[in-house]
Backbone:
């Protein structure tokens, strides 16, 4: 961010926004925005509660399960799509459609099939996350240096070794980029899934707070979810930068 | 290593090679030389088992081969090093694919890194090395698998002239005490005459053996500069030029 032609460090710009929020809250722009200080205070009171811990546990579990499945399925399918030509032609367009499709519209259908519970949330996370992983893995594998594959074969690589020793490593930067985007979508998936079901996890808390107009608690929870998504995506981005360094000569 | 009636027509309809028959003498360095696009790379890949021929057969020590094998190793024009692996792991890669246990293959790799003059760079990554050094890694990798036959596709073409000369000398040094059969593709007449025991001249596409020249340069006791002034060396350069001239324009 820039102000009067000077670069402002990100921490400072965050502080400014916090101040704006605090002031807007105190002036009373809208009852939806309580002052930040009261939101933080509310957050402090939520954090130690049993209900919050339970919500976090359930949400993290759904997120982790959904992401793990999305990563396994996404990478496998991405590799297949890139390497098996007919499959790429048949499924390629569908993946592209689903990457940009509004997956939330599918959640009620999932609810009908999988019931109102954790399974549906896991499935939502999976669907939110999987397509971008497929797409990025496919791109990464396609981009892999043909001469490296040829080299591996010349030195006697078996078919599976071409995958495990060359293709996967060569596509690692793209795969990680896909997983990072998928994780951000996955957080959305948890919240949206739970909101639509509205009887478990963080979604239940959101529902509860907004129904009783507990705006301070509501915003505190929003901040926590944001922070979580940011943290996950930053740690993957860190891995990405390290891999990018090794692969910089591609 | 023998080729009989090798032909290759690509799926696109391009006939790259026609009826190539030749026996490469064991323990010698042979170069494949010919006009651009005559199928040199294609022929080398067929010998290496990387692509199938559409006619004829490749025999190694009398046995027919139709895929890559442990007795043949490749050095690539574009180096083909794993960018995410250190020099040490790259050199050991052929052994890694064969399942040679960790410490043993690193030991072998270290030895060959030293022989190609890269001692001290074991932990470097390819992008930290110059082109010439990268190709030394490629050469060490091919030597490390201890194949009898080494196939080199224009290994020095992306290296500057000074580095190239030094590299040619080092290559001869490295090969002097090993009985390797080397098949070496090049564009450079001087390089062919300088390095080869035998030069196989290919005709324009579809490539076929057009002539065989034996430079007969006595390298044993001579310095590189003496070789470059040797009468047989200069005659070989002339002979090659006379044959290749026919395919120009
Ligand atoms: N994969 C391929 N599919 C179709 N045609 C090909 C393929 N590879 C090579 N060719 C064609 O076959 C012919 C021989 O190619 P090749 O690369 O073997 O020649 P070369 O002698 O190595 O050329 P250069 O001297 O430029 O390296 C060329 O006309 C080329 O266009
Ligand atoms: Mg070529």
Residues:
């Amino acid at each position: 961010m820039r102000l009067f032609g000077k670069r402002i460090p990100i921490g400072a710009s965050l502080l400014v926004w916090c101040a704006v929020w605090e002031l807007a809250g105190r002036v009373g722009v809208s009852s939806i925005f309580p002052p930040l200080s009261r939101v933080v205070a509310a957050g402090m009171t939520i954090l130690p509660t049993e209900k919050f811990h339970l919500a976090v546990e359930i949400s993290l579990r759904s997120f982790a399960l959904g992401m793990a499945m999305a990563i396994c399925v996404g990478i496998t399918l991405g590799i297949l799509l890139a390497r098996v030509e007919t499959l790429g032609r048949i499924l390629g367009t569908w993946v592209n459609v689903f990457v940009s499709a509004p997956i939330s519209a599918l959640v009620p259908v999932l609810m009908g099939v999988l019931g109102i519970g954790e399974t549906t949330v896991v499935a939502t996370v999976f669907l939110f996350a999987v397509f971008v992983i497929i797409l990025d893995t496919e791109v990464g594998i396609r981009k892999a240096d043909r001469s490296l594959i040829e080299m591996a074969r010349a030195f006697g690589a078996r078919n599976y070794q071409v995958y495990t020793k060359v293709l996967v490593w060569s596509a690692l930067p793209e795969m990680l980029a896909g997983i990072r985007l998928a994780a951000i979508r996955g957080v959305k998936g948890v919240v949206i899934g739970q909101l639509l079901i509205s009887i478990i996890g963080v979604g239940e808390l959101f529902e509860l707070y907004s129904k009783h107009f507990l705006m301070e608690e509501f915003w505190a929870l929003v901040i926590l979810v944001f922070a979580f998504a940011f943290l996950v995506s930053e740690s993957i981005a860190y891995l990405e930068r390290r891999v990018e360094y090794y692969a910089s000569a591609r | 290593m023998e080729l009989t009636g090798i032909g290759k027509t690509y799926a696109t309809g391009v006939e790259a090679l026609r009826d190539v028959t030749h026996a490469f003498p064991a323990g010698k360095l042979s170069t494949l030389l010919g006009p651009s696009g005559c199928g040199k790379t294609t022929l080398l890949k067929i010998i290496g088992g990387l692509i199938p021929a559409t006619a004829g057969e490749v025999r190694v020590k009398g046995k027919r081969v139709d895929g890559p094998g442990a007795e043949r190793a490749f050095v690539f024009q574009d180096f083909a090093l794993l960018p995410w692996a250190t020099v040490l792991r790259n050199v050991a890669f052929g052994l890694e694919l064969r399942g040679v246990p960790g410490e043993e293959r690193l030991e072998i790799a270290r030895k060959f890194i030293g022989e190609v003059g890269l001692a001290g760079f074991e932990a470097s990554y390819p992008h930290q090395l110059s082109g010439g050094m990268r190709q030394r890694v490629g050469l060490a990798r091919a030597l490390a698998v201890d194949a009898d036959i080494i196939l080199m596709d224009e290994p020095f073409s992306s290296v500057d002239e000074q580095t190239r000369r030094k590299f040619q000398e080092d290559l001869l040094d490295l090969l002097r005490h090993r009985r390797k059969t080397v098949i070496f593709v090049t564009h450079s007449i001087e390089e062919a005459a300088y390095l080869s025991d035998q030069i196989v001249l290919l005709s324009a596409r579809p490539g076929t053996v057009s002539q065989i020249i034996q430079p007969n340069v006595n390298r044993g006791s001579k310095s590189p500069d003496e070789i470059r002034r040797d009468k047989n060396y200069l005659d070989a350069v002339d002979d090659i030029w006379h044959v290749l001239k026919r395919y120009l324009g």
About this structure: The longest helix of chain A spans residues 50-83.
